[in-house]
Amino acid sequence: MNQHDLDVLDEIQRRVLWLATRIVDAANHDRATGDGVKVGGHQASSASLVTAMTALWFAHLDAEDRVAVKPHASPVFHAIQYLLGNLDRSYLPRLRARGGLQSYPSRTKDPDEVDFSTGSVGLGAARRSSPPPPAGTSTRTSAPGRTPGSWR
Predict the structure, then answer these.
(1) Angle at 77 between CA 76 and CA 83, to 5 degrees
(2) Quick one: angle between helices 3-25 and 74-83, nearest 10?
(3) Residue pLDDT, tens place only, 79-108
(4) How far apart are CA 95 and CA 39, in angstroms?
(5) Which of 63, 123, 132, 148 is in Cβ range 3.0-4.6 Å of 142 for a Cys bridge?
(6) What does the alpha-carbon distance between residue 20 and residue 76 come to, in Å, rounded to a whole number?
(7) What's the CA gap between 74 and 46, in Å, rounded?
């Protein structure tokens, strides 16, 4: 990847961050909730994955790749899907609204294509990437001089 590619990714990630933040802001300030209670949206948890998710979707993923998105990164996922042309603009102000975008990626409730439902609707696919350790052995590790599992 050359400097130009990195500069382009940086510009895209700035747009993703702005859009994800705006999605949450719209849910909390632009839509009447009836009782005035904000609906939330996990802005900090979402923002923590902007760089990684931008790099994945705009530079690394292939058609056969699947991703389980961190539940609170749903606004970032939806922002990326919009920028890729996979999500209609009308959904952007509808985070946590009936028939709108879900706060956790959902294969059954979101209008854009979600690989795995995560969060309150299931943790998605999980599988060991290596065989289990032999019976009677420990996989726990610790720093030198520390007992595994200790806090000191």
Answers:
(1) 90
(2) 120
(3) 999 999 999 999 998 888 888 888 888 888
(4) 9
(5) 148
(6) 5
(7) 7
Task: Please name every residue paired with 101 in a beta bridge, in sequence order, or none if there are none.
Answer: 95
Q: What is the DSSP letter of 151?
A: -
Residues 108-147 pLDDT 10s: 888 888 888 887 544 545 554 556 666 665 544 444 444 4
Rg (CA), the chain: 19
Q: How far is it between the farthest Cα atoms of the chain?
A: 58
Res 4 pLDDT > 50: yes
Instruction: Count CA atoms closer than 13 A to 29's CA, side-chain side.
Output: 6
The pTM score is 0.74
HEC states along 97-136? CCCCECCCCCCCCCCCCCCCCCHHHCCCCCCCCCCCCCCC
What type of residue sits at position 10?
D
Q: Specify the amino acid at residue 70.
A: K
Amino acid code (one letter) for 143: A
And the tokens for 54?
């931008």
Alpha-carbon distances, residue 104 vs 29, 38, 72 (angstroms): 20, 17, 6
